[in-house]
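Researcher: Please predict.
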Amino acid sequence: MNIKQFLEKKDIRISLKRYGVDALGAMAQGLFCTLLIGTIIDAVGKQLNIPFLTMTVAQIAGIEYTVGGLASAMSGPAMAVAIGYALSSPPLVLFSLISVGFASNALGGAGGPLAVLFVAIISAEVGKAVSKETKIDILVTPLVTIGVGILLSAVIAPFLGGLAMKVGDIIMWATNLQPFLMGILVSVVIGIALTLPISSAAICAALGLTGLAGGAAVAGCSAQMIGFAIMSFNENRWGGLVSQGIGTSMLQMGNIVRNPRIWIPPILTSAITGPLATCVFHLEMNGTPVSSGMGTCGLVGQIGVYTGWVNDVAQGIKPGITFFDAAGLILISFVLPALLCPAFAAVLKKIGWIHPGDMKLL
């Protein structure tokens, strides 16, 4: 058996789609189910003054955890297991990735998600390669998977985590320095990433994208989701409105391949709402970075901005949540995309670039 046959037998397919689309998308789901949900639980507990959600339910190594805090603490293991699942890892490899995810996320620091992505992919594929190759598989597979994962975590996780944060810091610094130009760039690029079959949420999490840059990212993602939902309403009705508006604009990817021009309206919209978010409303994402890349999906982007406000108020950084804050968030996330995107689409329909049925979801 040659190497190619062995890799096929083990379902190890080295490809950009598998690692850059499948694994990255799964990682975002792992983040969503831990860090993001934990943050929301904490915010709900504080806002509604629910004792069970605000009290310490566990104390580990001197660190106190709330219910939401426990969920957030499991983000590393959840990301790694999600990646392993996307790569079709067998059970022993999948369960071993729990330790790998914890180590790589912890050693990667603030840029832990990027470290988890690389380390979990390599560990999972190596684990799959040795899986069921010996009579003592129950020992060999976990030992190899965890051993490779911990070694890689120690060697490359700090570098990858630091690199991710450095890139994120540069983006955020540039956005603060040039809010208009960077507002356009971040909004358009992250919005496009949301509609592509990759994960904008994972990208924002890996880069630690918050502040004004995070606000621009929310604007871009919302422009894509609400834009497509509204401008395709005649073809997809209420089901399409909900599935795209609070689900994902990725549903339009097949239609975009058939007619790329339908992507122009939401992209133009994001190029407008992005700088409005940074320059006019000073919309900042001071919640979890993963929220920056979620847009209106489950209203996670908006909840992230709100929880950031709440935390800032609690820390005395922000005097209070104003009407201007709320109006800006609603305008950028919902109203402007709902108005601008159909207007751009109407022009493209008039010149024959978009035709009836081009945005019909199958």
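Model: The two ends are 43 Å apart (CA to CA).
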